[in-house]
Amino acid sequence: MKLSKEWRIGMKDMQQILPPPRNRGQLKKPTWIIVLLLLVCVFLVLSYIHPPQTSGSCYIFSASSCETFSSWLPPSFRVLSDDEIASSVVINNILNTPPIDSKNPKIAFMFLSVGSLPFEKLWGKFFQGHEGRFSIYIHASRDKPVHTSPYFVNREIRSDKVEWGTVSMVDAEKRLLANALKDPDNQHFVLLSDSCVPLRDFDYVYDYLMNTNISFIDSFTDPGPHGSGRYSQHMLPEVEKKFFRKGAQWFTMKRQHAVVVLADNLYYTKFRDYCKPGMDGSINCYADEHYLPTFFHMHDPNGIANWSVTHVDWSERKWHPKSYEKKDVSEQLLKNITSITESVHVTSEERRETMIMPCMWNGMNRPCYLFARKFLPETQDSMIELFSNYTTKQ
C-alpha cells in the first residue's frame, strides 16, 4: 500500500512538471488568417479585371505607378473588333508576301516641299550617272516648282494643301507613296524635305538601303509631355498608351511597308481624329511624329531600325531643329555628321533622359546618316563645292 501511494504521488508531481495536453482545436491555423488571405485574393482579381483609374488608387500598392502594379499580373486579352481582325489579316498577309522580284530595282526619292526645291543642283550632282536606278516624286503643296535640274522636270504629283502639325502631313506622305508604288521597280522609298541634302554618294546610299531588309523608321518611347503626354484615351481600344511611340517623320521604307501604310485605315483614322493640336483642350499631338512610329511598333517592331537615316540637330532645344547657314558649312561639319555611329534620343521629361543605341546594319555597327537637314538655300554652292571631296573620302 505504501508503494502504491508513493507511485500516485509521483504521478501527480509529473503532471505538475509536464505541460498540459494541447486542445485538438488549437492545432488548426487561426480562421482569421485564412479569411484575410481569401479577401486579398479576391481584391487582386477584382483589381485585375477592373484596374484602378486614379493615381491615388495605385499608391495602395506602390509609390511608383499603376504600370508597376499591372506588371505583376499576366497580360490581359480582349476580344478584337471585326475591323481589328480584318486589319490584322491584311497587314500580316502583306508582310508575309515575298517582295516583287525586279530586274531593275530602284529607290524612289520623294520630296515634300512647299514649292521649288532649293537644292536641285546638288541633288542633280548626286543623281548624275545613275539613271535608271532611281525615281523622283515631288509633292509641292503651295507653288508649282521652278526646276534647275533636268532630273526633276515633270516629276510633280497631284498635291494638296499641307499644314504643319496636322494630319495633312501624313496625307502628303501617303500621296507620295501611292504614286511611287505605281512603278513596280521601286523597291525602297525615301521621304525628304526641301531642306535635305545628301551626305553620301549615290552608290553608298543605294547599297545601304537596298541590301538590308528593314525600314529606317524612327520610333522610341518618350514618357514626357511631348511623347506619351500627347496620347488620348479616345484611341482605345485599338491603340493602347503602352504602344504609343514618337519619332521623326523622315523615313525610308521597303516596298512591303509602303503597301501596308496605304492599306491601313483603322489606325490612320485614330490618329487623324485624336492626334491633332488642341486635343482634349490643351494637348498638342502631331500625327506625323506619332502615327508611323506607333503603327510599326505595334505591327512589325523587328522590321524597323528605330532611327532615321536623316540627321537633324536638336541641340538648341527649340521647337524647330538647328538651321545650317553658309558660315556653318565645312568639310569638318560633314565629316562630323557622317562619322556618327549611334542614335541619340532625348525624352521631354524635366530630367531629359538620354537614350543611346548603336546604328546596326545587318548586324554591323555602321554610320547612321545618309542625309541631313535643315540646310538653308544659301548653303547650296558651298555644298556643291564640297560634295565631291567629302563623298570620295567615304
From TrEMBL:
Gene Ontology CC annotation, any one: membrane
UniProt keyword list: Glycoprotein, Glycosyltransferase, Membrane, Transferase, Transmembrane, Transmembrane helix
Keyword Lipid biosynthesis in record: no
Subcellular location: Membrane
Membrane topology (UniProt): Single-pass type II membrane protein
Record field: transmembrane: 31-49
GO molecular function, one term: glycosyltransferase activity
Pfam family, one: Branch
Protein name: Putative glycosyl transferase, family 14
Organism the protein comes from: Helianthus annuus
Phylogenetic placement of the source organism: Eukaryota, Viridiplantae, Streptophyta, Embryophyta, Tracheophyta
